[in-house]
Sequence to fold (252 residues):
Amino acid sequence: MPVAPQPSDEALFAAYRTGDAAALEILFRRYQLPLGRHLARILDDPATAEDLVVETFLRLHRHRERWREGTPLRPWIFAIARNLARNRLRARRLWGWLPLTEAQETVAAPPAMRDEIQQRVAAAFAALPPAQREACSLRLLGELSIGEIARVTRAPLGTVKSRLFHGLRRLRVMLADLAPEE
Amino acid sequence: MPTRDLIRSATPAPDHDLWQRVRDSLGRDDHVTLRLPAIGWLEAAALGVAIGTLAVVPDPLRVLAAGGLL
Fold:
């Protein structure tokens, strides 16, 4: 018996806008993992990443009337998450200027001791320039196409390709001993 | 293991279902959105005249009062 094709993201969101509440849950479950991983890598803070995954879908709900049918949904979702993450990083930098006693109350504690591979991967990403880090995270963790990354970051295709080329090459070099088969 | 798989497996992901949080928040999310009416050419022209008056006229308050606007 042939398996029915899964509805597209756009079809699900269109259904949600016309009152099918369950469609948003299906959509959310599609995005929770890739969006959560991408945000965790960009923010280097899994707890905040979880908050922003939830917040992204709340924004999606609030601004649902702004979406025009026919436009791809995935770049829009990641663009919302990007704005939220940028605001969060900006606030974090701002908190960093506070006197230590105040900052200790507001800034999240550093992540618990992670295993060595996690630390190596985090360090490799942290060593990339921000634009390359974002492009690589969107590609590898967010699972976006190059065209989608260009839409999310509002950068020309050629720029995205260049960022990915250089970023992925550096990641492969830095993690070569952990991923030797490639 | 390809680098991509290594990076995915070594990146923390939400390890529990977040849908319940979204659903609870959606239930509380009944805020009202205020929208200003769109500004047309007439409103833009009136605004321009008002700003121009304030900028050009030496004593704008007196002018507005004389015109019965204050």
Summary: Chain A has two domains: 7-110, 113-182. Chain A is about 70% helix and 0% strand. The radius of gyration of chain A is 18 Å.
